[in-house]
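hey so u asked for the seq, here:
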Amino acid sequence: MERLIVFEGIDGSGKTSLSRMFHAAMLESGVPAIWLREPTDSPRGDKIRRTAQDQESISIQEELQYFLDDRRWDVEKNILPALRSGKTVVLDRYYYSNACYQGARGLDMDAILRMNRQFAPEADLVFIIDVDVDRALARISSTRREVAKLFEKKDFLEKVRCNYLKLTGANLVRIDGNPDLKTVMADVLRRYSELGVKKTPAASLK
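ran it, structure tokens below
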């Protein structure tokens, strides 16, 4: 049964490692699953990463459009084909990131969500990995040689974290990401088992 499981959180929250661990757990349990990330590895996604590294800032509208174009490509080429084939898609970031990050730069969060939902399927379950900003920045500095200047500043990440905490929805699950990865992963798997996941609505797979 196809499912779309998303991991969200500020930079340094551990969501990438956790999403990979969750994907491995699905495969070990016999669930057909693929792992994807956004921005993607397409030329569109590479452009987003280069922009974050090379510039202090870009036009907020241009930034949002980069992400929308990349996601539309991901939905058409990766996400929907996998769901239609009955696979579980484990996704590192999705359009909630747009709402929270570009929202922190001044755009309307609800408007961004609406724009994305016009073409992107709704996630069955979204794990929001919540981490203190100081802890997240410490993790970033210890694991990355380069800092993405555009997104990895304390005052900015504080705003992004606040936006994540504002999100509401029956499919959202907030996880304390401050402990070690093993502890957090155990919490993720426990919550996944407790909640169960309904089948992705057929209307979203058209």
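The first strand starts at residue 3 and ends at 8. Residues 60-84 form the longest helix (25 residues).
lmk if thats what u needed
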